[in-house]
Amino acid sequence: MRDEGPRLKVERRWGVRWFVGTDLVCAVFEFSRHVGVEFWRGSSLRDSTGLIEGTGKSLRHLKLTFVAAARSPPFRELLREAAQLDRESAKRSR
Fold first, then answer.
1. What is the mean pLDDT of residues 6-32?
2. Could you tell me whether strands 9-13 and 16-20 are parallel, antiparallel, or unpaired per DSSP bridges?
3. Per-residue pLDDT tens over the stretch 34-92
4. Which of 6, 19, 35, 86 is the most exposed place for a label (fewest CB within 10 A)?
5. Which long-range contacts (CB under 8 A, 24 or more apart) does 50-55 make?
């Protein structure tokens, strides 16, 4: 995330590390068999490769089971798009 959204800072919200710009962007959750990445405005992201899961109003998530997946171009594009969406959009009410 540091490469794709260098202006974002890390804050702890609800006991979780969130990358934050003008609003929440994404969070990282550590599980025993995967790492979960939750996108605050995930429903607004284009997901041409079908990585994103979930049906919530805004939140979407994905599961990374291999380090290589975190370095993949489709995942990095999602991070880049989430950071860009944060820069271009006004803060939403929670």
1. 91
2. antiparallel
3. 999 999 999 999 988 888 999 989 999 999 998 888 888 999 999 999 999 998 876 66
4. 6
5. 51/75, 51/78, 52/78
**The model's pTM:** 0.86
To 5 degrees, how large is the angle CA 9–CA 93–CA 20?
Answer: 5
For residues 62 and 53, the answer to whether their CB atoms sit within 8 Å is yes
Q: Quick one: tokens of 49?
A: 């490769």
